[in-house]
Design a protein that fits this description.
The complex is a heterodimer of chains A (211) and B (466).
Chain A (H helix, E strand, L loop, with lengths): L5 E8 L7 H4 L19 H4 L31 E3 L12 H9 L3 E4 L4 H9 L3 E4 L2 H13 L4 E5 L4 E4 L2 E4 L4 H9 L3 H7 L1 H14 L6
Parallel strand pairs in A: 1-2, 2-3, 3-4
Antiparallel strand pairs in A: 1-5, 5-6, 6-7
Chain B lengths: L4 H7 L2 E5 L2 E5 L2 E4 L5 H9 L10 E3 L17 H17 L2 E2 L10 H7 L8 E4 L13 E4 L2 H10 L1 E4 L3 E8 L8 H12 L7 E6 L1 H5 L2 H9 L8 E3 L4 H7 L8 H11 L12 E6 L6 E3 L7 E3 L13 H14 L14 E4 L7 H11 L10 E4 L4 H9 L2 H8 L2 E2 L20 E4 L14 E4 L2 H10 L10
Parallel strand pairs in B: 3-4, 3-6, 4-5, 6-7, 9-10, 9-12, 10-11, 15-16, 15-18, 16-17, 18-19
Antiparallel strand pairs in B: 1-2, 2-8, 13-14
Helix pairs in contact in B: 2-5, 6-8, 12-14, 12-15
Bound molecules: iron/sulfur cluster.
């Protein structure tokens, strides 16, 4: 998993509440055999004027010029700023895969859907819950200042805006995993000695399974 | 301390424990084309290796065509999934039965058939019906794609302990009553959430008398009762079934193995969290009438009145199920006319199932109102055996189509499917909305009941057939 600790990036203000996983990545793209490559179809129905289908040439499609991701100043953004209950809907991991593939590393919102929140950590994205006032303030700045950037320091749990510092909360264990880039597999592999020791004993005891 | 079978298997696989979460070692990893590609990709992206390639047996089943295989796969999305499995297996040097290998078949049919499912094992597959393999006294559970990746990379899985349930079935089954009827009857009794959080062990004299095929059918359906794992204790039948199979232990190892396997039963005084007793004599041929396996009744029943349903929360669900199924309360099950027949799926596509169905259709004809009747053997080897016994001829002469092995119309990922509003008697395991094709209407039954329905054009009581 891609680790994240200190991160600085352009903020993309997506001014909507209850953005569901189907809006993040529509279901016709879930048949894919891949974990990557979903980026061009992130927010597909909002981002394009025509209907998206897997396999078609994405670069020839009609962009919706009014959608925030299509505006010049936000295209390179890596921090998504949004409203309440972001990521509601399905438990599939395609939504974080699509966000990550587009390049999003941090999401700021007043609240997140539970499963999605957990899935972000599993996939190298840091979701940060911020209060209503801070949300409004960042929206104002992101919409008015060209190239508005924020810096995140996960170790110190800080959001830094031009010298202003705001703290945020995060589960200690999840923080540790994100900083180290450890997913469940990485964590288990930290104990790979235990598995090796187990195997030795196990195949001694049940030799017909050793092959 | 007295232990249940589930606890015995669980305990011998514990690598480590932390806060009631166990790292469990996995012996066998079955892989198919639908749920594995992202797991292999994840592994590649992270630069990780497969921990134990010899634990893996791979096969394409969900997307394979059941006719004209030599033409390849026509649907491009299906083709990509199957090709990707081929590539992943080749790159990683995994054992795979490719689409045109005669050993190819539904993953839950070929595991036991090859002897790659053994007692005492932990078995996983990215597919909920992995519970099937529990029929051999193993702990077999379905897992999601990120867990598939976890097992590939670490040969282990993070698990919490299940609670334990014992379902005792005692007595003699009536004529023509099969394991499928037992499974549907149990689900009708405890509901589709009745087993949630439990590992269910099936025992009692009726289960002892079931063939291994029957036990697989039963454990296959454990997931439809909400339980991730079904189990049956090891006995002589288990051992006889496995002897001499390609992946089974040989020689000295075989002796050691059966010595160990004989202990793979629950201790007589083991404590279960829940016990259910069922009398075999009360089980009649079962037919589902709704869109969930718990919406089931006897062949001689009428469609229930939703307003009479005891649980208020169910009333609305019952009514919308009837609307979807195009059925009315009070209609006799025996008056339901059918359009298609499907004999197949990992629930009922083994040789015994085909024999029992063939016995019914012998020298009869599929009724004229039936647009299509399919027999899809569970594996190439089942197909071969059936042809050796002449079953294919019986089916074909009656008007059935005799197909190549795969999941087929169980979930309609390939070209085999119901059209909107078509009604099907199916030996599969799920009657969910759209499962066998958008708008399609599924009635779950045993192979014998499906065969009887085929020749009568509607449901009949198999026991009353001449
Ligand atoms: S036969 Fe049906 S239930 Fe069984 S594995 Fe295939 S699709 Fe799943």
């Amino acid at each position: 998993m891609l680790p994240i600790n200190k991160h600085c990036g352009v903020v993309i203000p997506l001014d909507r509440a209850n953005v569901d996983t189907d809006a993040i990545i529509p279901k016709q793209f879930l048949k894919s055999i891949k974990k990557s490559g979903f980026g061009p179809n992130l927010f597909d129905e909002w981002r394009y004027l025509d209907r998206g289908e897997p396999g078609i040439n994405q670069s020839e499609r009609k962009l919706n010029p009014d959608f925030i991701l299509n505006k010049e100043n936000y295209r390179q953004g890596t921090i998504l700023l949004t409203r309440e209950n972001f990521g509601c809907g399905s438990s599939r991991e395609h939504a974080p895969w699509a966000l990550l593939d587009f390049g999003i590393r941090v999401i700021l919102a007043p609240s997140f859907a539970d499963i999605f929140y957990g899935n972000c950590f599993k996939n190298g994205i840091l979701p940060i819950q911020i209060n209503k006032e801070m949300t409004d303030l960042f929206f104002k700045k992101a919409l008015s200042e060209i190239g508005f950037k924020l810096s995140i320091d996960l170790e110190k749990q800080l959001i830094i805006d031009d010298g202003e510092r705001y703290t945020f909360k995060v589960d200690e264990f999840k923080k540790h995993c994100l900083i180290k880039g450890l997913d469940d597999i990485g964590l288990t592999l930290e104990n790979s000695k235990d598995i090796e020791v187990f195997e030795k004993r196990y195949y001694n005891q049940y030799p017909w399974l050793a092959k | 301390m007295a232990l249940t079978l589930y606890e015995k298997i669980f305990n011998r696989h514990i690598v480590r424990e932390e806060n009631d979460t166990y790292l469990i070692y996995i012996d066998r990893h079955l892989v198919h084309e639908v749920t594995s590609p992202q797991a292999f990709e994840g592994l590649r992206n992270a630069g990780r290796k497969i921990w134990r390639t010899s634990s893996i047996l791979a096969v394409p089943d969900h997307n394979v065509p059941t006719t004209d295989r030599e033409k390849g796969i026509l649907d491009p999305v299906s083709k990509i999934q199957v090709d990707t499995l081929d590539e992943n297996c080749e790159k990683n040097k995994l054992t795979q039965f490719k689409m045109n290998d005669e050993r190819q078949g539904i993953v839950h049919v070929i595991g036991p058939e090859q002897g790659s499912t053994l007692p005492g094992m932990t078995i996983v597959c990215g597919d909920s019906h992995t519970s099937t393999h529990g029929a051999f006294g193993s702990l077999a559970i379905g897992i999601g794609t990120s867990e598939v990746e976890h097992v590939l990379a670490t040969q282990s899985l993070l698990l919490k302990k299940f609670k334990t349930m014992l379902v005792n079935v005692n007595g003699t089954l009536g004529k023509h009553i099969t394991a499928k009827d037992i499974a549907l009857y149990i689900i009708g009794q405890i509901g589709t959430a009745g087993g949630t959080g439990f590992a269910i062990e099936f025992s009692g004299s009726t289960i002892k008398n079931l063939s291994m095929e029957g036990r697989m059918t039963l454990c296959n359906m454990a997931i439809e009762a909400g339980s991730r794992a079904g189990l049956v204790g090891v006995d002589e039948k288990t051992i006889d079934y496995l002897q001499g199979r390609p992946f089974s232990p040989q020689g000295e190892n075989w002796k050691k193995a059966i010595h160990d396997w004989k202990g793979l039963v629950s201790d007589p005084d083991a404590v279960f969290d829940k016990i259910i007793n069922i009398s075999a004599s009360s089980i009649e041929p079962q037919v589902t009438w709704g869109t969930s396996p718990e919406m089931v009744c006897n062949i001689n029943d009428k469609i229930p009145d939703p307003a009479q349903e005891k649980k208020l929360s169910n009333q609305k669900g019952y009514q919308s199920a009837l609307d979807y199924m195009g059925l009315k309360k009070g209609t006799s099950i025996k008056d339901i006319k059918l359009d298609k027949i499907f004999i197949g799926s990992c629930t009922n596509s083994r040789i015994e199932d085909l024999r029992r169905a063939a016995e019914i259709v012998k020298s009869k004809k599929v009724a004229t109102n039936i647009k299509q009747a399919l027999v899809v053997p569970g594996s190439g080897l089942v197909k071969k055996q059936a042809e050796k016994e002449g079953l294919d001829k019986i089916f074909i002469e009656a008007g059935f189509e005799w197909r190549d092995p795969g999941c087929s119309m169980c979930l309609a990922m390939n070209a085999d499917r119901l059209e909107p509003q078509e009604r099907c008697a199916s030996t599969s395991n799920r009657n969910f909305e759209g499962r066998q094709g958008q708008g399609g209407r599924t009635h779950l039954v045993s192979p014998e009941m499906a065969a009887a329905a085929a020749v009568n054009g509607k449901f009949v009581d198999i026991r009353e057939m001449p």
